[in-house]
Write a structure and sequence with these properties.
Elements: H1 2-20, H2 36-42, H3 48-54, H4 64-72
Length: 78
C-alpha cells in the first residue's frame, strides 16, 4: 500500500509539473524578435488580429516586452 501511495504521489507531481510548464517560443531566425510564423508554432490558436494588436510599435514583429504585455493582458497564453 505504501508503494502505491508513493507511486501515486510521484505521478501527481509529474502531471502538475507538466501542467505548470510554460510554452517556449523560439526565435528561429535569431533576430531578437518574434514573427507571426514563429509565434503560431508555439500558439496555434494565435490570429493575425491578436498578433497585430500586440505589435505596439507596428513593426511586424513582437519584442519580448510586447509578447510579455500581451500575455499579461491575457491575449496570448502565458
Amino acid at each position: 500500500m505504501k508503494k502505491f501511495v508513493l507511486a501515486l504521489g510521484t505521478v501527481s507531481a509529474l502531471i502538475a509539473g507538466v501542467a505548470q510548464a510554460q510554452t517556449v517560443v523560439e526565435d528561429t531566425d535569431g533576430n531578437g524578435v518574434y514573427s507571426f510564423e514563429e509565434l503560431v508554432v508555439a500558439f496555434p490558436e494565435l490570429t493575425q488580429e491578436v498578433f497585430a494588436a500586440a505589435d505596439a510599435d507596428a513593426d511586424g514583429a513582437l519584442s519580448a516586452e510586447e509578447l510579455a504585455a500581451a500575455q499579461a493582458a491575457g491575449n496570448i497564453p502565458a
